């Protein structure tokens, strides 16, 4: 199979960017309307809150199970069919959600949404297939920018559409995903040659606990995998407590919170597009990783202790520099793994991220409740942010100890 031309690679990268963008945008679109739709089914805001928690846990659990399956499928059968099937499935799933007549129907649809939106696994492996090792951090930065754009535009657009009809954001998300599928049919080449594919589909490697087992086979990435897990654990402080924290600490309502989230997204996009590539080039992947984590620590400390809202806002550009860390860690990991294992390793990493998504919300919410409640040892609404800062500081120490210092382009670690 011939290598894709430069123009084809560029078109493929644009499509991968759009895959991630639409997945995240679709998720952001329904953030402001899903609770209201659930409330219509339950008739009780308390019950609706409980079910939204169930939805979040189920979604993360399904991604935990399905991410390694998608990765293994892409290693065996190629990236293109897996990515296109994910786009098609996600589009059809949002149609089902838009038509859901009952709460249980909506919950089942969320299960399928978790299955198909695990395409980040294959998208990361695709980038590793077609981009030279020294250029991967910049490309992963562009994928990070897709996250920022999606979470910047999604909630604002979803809220506007939801004012017209609660189900309209689901239809809009479905249309985007299905258009993306049609676009990919024409522009997305296969990135993994047949001779580089796994010889068989390894079901053992797709078991949930196999993520840890697979990563353990590569001692050179164990520390980096721990960094990825801890950093994602810390990142869940935003969706877990931000809205409640802003209300308790500064009296911000939905309008103010929406614009703050917009600023968070803008800062993230700027860093991923304009800073990541330059930072990695200037400092190297290892130092860029540690620098990014350090900026995240500093930003979270500002959040924790900011007595006024404008001081909190000063922490936004500082914490946004944390975005340097993710592409740097991805680039370091892909250097240590053979080509036919990239999909499975990315699937294993996404499984770790999903585990973080399962355990983090209740952890941060519990800490927040403890430090604002009547039995609080000390009144400290910023406690969840301090917990997140401690987690990132721990990740930075692990990165300093275990991130590879040498960056030989073609050096691959053999599994231990």
Automatic annotation (TrEMBL):
Keyword set, alphabetical order: Membrane, Transmembrane, Transmembrane helix, Transport
Stretches assigned to the Major facilitator superfamily (MFS) profile domain: 12-407
GO cellular component entries: membrane
Transmembrane segments: 12-34, 46-69, 81-101, 107-128, 140-162, 168-189, 210-237, 257-276, 288-306, 312-333, 345-372, 384-403
Localization, UniProt: Membrane
PROSITE patterns to which the protein is assigned, alphabetical: MFS
Protein name: TCR/Tet family MFS transporter
Lineage: Bacteria, Pseudomonadati, Pseudomonadota, Gammaproteobacteria, Lysobacterales
Alphabetized Pfam families for the sequence: MFS_1
